[in-house]
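Retro notes, item 3 of 5
We never archived the inputs for the SN-glycerol-1-phosphate complex last cycle. Fixing that now. Sequence and ligand:
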Amino acid sequence: MGRVVDYLLKELKSGPLHLTLIDPDKSPGTKAAEIAASAVELGSHAILLGGSTGISPEVMGAAATAIKARVPVPTIIFPEGPRSLTPAADAVFFMSLLNSRNLDLVIRAHAKAAPAIRKMHLEPLALGYLVIAPGMRVGEVGAVDAVERTDVEGAEGYALAAEFLGMRFVYLEAGSGAPAPVPAPMIRGVRSCLSVPLIVGGGIRSAADARGVLDAGAQILVTGTVTETEGIGPSFRGILAEVGRDRGH
Ligand code: 1GP
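Structure as it came back at the time:
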């Protein structure tokens, strides 16, 4: 596989992308691969592997290996810490939790993980990760000063700072299982000041939610909970249909 960043940037030229987040503690090995296969068949563009509790490298590795045997799209680790890295994946979100009070999550864990990432030949995807209220579990474990949902200027400042620091993506995260996605005015504001791609996740559970974040300017949608609770059901299909519509198919 070529560089994952090149694949994502090339695909973005044809419209928005969808990433399917799978927690390999809940869906291990071949179960993860089955979800991935169905998701990719419906048009999802990459598989993210992660969860907010410590996933062992063995569990992460087994899921990545099974997924890579089934689907041609990249498998990307969405890490909650440096311990769940595996060379079986293609890439890792090398993400700084921009609004954390814990320096480990801003940069210190990265300094520890970087040499291992290089040794594993995992591609680091530099990403600014910003947690918006309510933030859910990542807001708690990430010791986050969540950006208020009405604080569009605050979010714009963080996003632009991430771009100025050279990060290749900015991710607005409402938190897994959030009751509602990141608000449209915030997505619109951040998108209008950024030139790197904008990822939006947390609380996208229906076609209407997907439509809302797409219309506001999100370029990459992440969903996780919807497949955990319903599997590859009507809600997931609806979300993928909205992404597909904007890609002209
Ligand atoms: C969480 O943004 C992702 O990190 C996905 O959120 O589980 O609410 O889809 P959901």
